[in-house]
Write a structure and sequence with these properties.
The protein has eleven helices and eleven strands. It is an alpha+beta fold. It has one domain.
């Protein structure tokens, strides 16, 4: 979970607890972002309301007063990259880049070195080390995370084909696909998340400027979630269909969490540079909200297999109650319909397939006829995308009641290496192998 940052002006003697200051008070005193945190670490949809790997990252561990949001900090260096196991963030940007013609391994290494240095500074609440835009002046880190991944084409462009993991083979076609190839894939992928919109945009702008002549943006998408502290107590998030989304996400406390989500350091068929990394499947999923909202609440619940009010399974209980798939009503019909999204996506119905789902909602305006362009920026993490996302999506292709209310419009698969050690940059073990 994010750490609390320590402002330059306060010492351990002044505050032995190390508690973060009230950022609103700092703002009133005119303390800038640079001064405030200058030394604090300087150096399915599978949709989910229901489903299969649908929690952990969906609700914070405790309610967060809004006045403290700016002080929350995630760490850049570590075993895994940031932005995977942290809780959902209020604002996100997903952006893919293609290397420019003539840019190869040397340019890519320089780019990842620049990006890593910038991410480390911004996540610590500092300004970028050159040409900072001051967009986030006066703000703390606000749980900012920046995550980097490599697409299939990156390896041929850098002459590293022999280091490309087999798990990065292109995803198969699915019946719900209506993919815009110009908004899919990419050589490099960056995920940015924060609990403050200006902090998130500041990071997006810094990353884009750092790309320089080495890479150009291929596509970029913006998303959001409910802000921490917006509810009276911690709750699993809701999506734009109004459904509780994330009930059965794998949790780090589970004994097989790392096995399902991260590539092991040894004993894996993946190349060594992917140790402690993960694979991100990214899908822009349009929700056909006009059609969905014509359904009665009861009909919506039958599509999902869970109550809309509290996320509990239709078989009874609370949100976390195990679903009874064999329960029938007085007419002998299954209480959880055979085509319900929750039934189809259960891990025990998919060979144990599991993903850590960490999405953002999106809204990109309205079509000429008033149809909303809105839905889910679906991001899921797994050690093996063939056993995770592909297994579940193939099952959904064969009869998910939700499929008529969604449309997959963009797609990407990215190899996300493990975290960078202190003094390293992300991807160094690949690019300097």
């Amino acid at each position: 979970m994010p750490e609390k940052s320590v402002p330059r002006a306060r010492t351990a003697a002044a505050d032995a607890s190390g508690a973060a200051p009230d950022t609103a008070e700092n703002a009133r005193e005119g303390v800038s972002r640079r001064r405030l945190l200058g030394t604090a670490g300087a150096t399915g949809l599978v949709l989910g309301a229901a489903g299969a790997a649908a929690g952990y990252a969906s609700a914070p561990a405790a309610a967060t007063p809004l006045t403290s949001l700016g002080a929350d900090r995630a760490m850049f260096h570590g075993k895994h990259q940031p932005g995977i196991t942290e809780g959902l963030q209020a604002k996100g940007h997903l952006v893919a880049f293609d290397l420019t013609p003539g840019a190869g391994r040397t340019q890519a290494a320089s780019l990842l070195r620049r990006w890593s240095a910038t991410a480390e500074r911004l996540m610590a609440g500092e300004a970028a080390d050159h040409d900072d835009t001051d967009v986030a002046r006066d703000a703390g880190p606000s749980s900012l995370t920046v995550t980097f991944g490599f697409g299939h084409g990156f390896f041929s462009r850098t002459g590293l084909e022999k280091q490309r993991p087999a798990s990065l083979d292109p995803l198969p076609d699915f019946s719900s696909d209506h993919l815009d190839r110009s908004r899919s894939d990419g050589d490099l992928w960056v995920q940015i998340g924060a609990d403050d919109a200006l902090v998130a945009f500041h990071a997006l702008r810094a990353i884009q400027k750092d790309a320089g002549d080495a890479a150009r943006i291929r596509w970029q998408m913006n998303g959001f979630n409910r802000s921490p502290g917006a509810t009276a107590h911690p709750m699993t998030a809701r999506n734009l269909m109004g459904q509780i989304d994330g009930t059965r996400n794998p949790k780090p406390s589970e004994s097989d969490f790392d096995q399902r989500i991260f590539v092991p350091a040894s004993g894996s068929s993946d190349p060594a540079w992917m140790a402690n990394g993960s694979y991100a499947v990214v899908r822009r999923i349009r929700m056909l909200l006009d059609d969905w909202e014509k359904l009665s609440p009861g009909a919506q619940e039958a599509v999902i297999g869970r109550r809309k009010s509290d996320g509990a399974p239709l078989s009874g209980g609370t949100e976390t109650t195990a679903m009874d798939l064999d329960k029938v009503d007085k007419n002998g019909d299954y209480v959880v319909p055979l085509t319900a999204h929750a039934r189809i996506t259960r891990p025990d119905r998919n060979g144990g397939a599991a993903m850590l789902r960490r999405p953002f909602s999106y809204h990109d305006g309205y079509e000429a006829d008033g149809t909303p362009d809105a839905g889910l920026l679906f991001v899921c993490w797994q050690a093996d995308p063939l056993r995770g996302f592909v297994t579940v999506q193939r099952k959904l292709d064969r009869g998910d009641a939700l499929s008529k209310y969604i449309r997959h419009e963009a797609s990407g698969l990215f190899a996300v290496p493990g975290g960078a050690a202190k003094g390293e940059y992300v991807g160094q073990r690949l690019l300097e192998s």
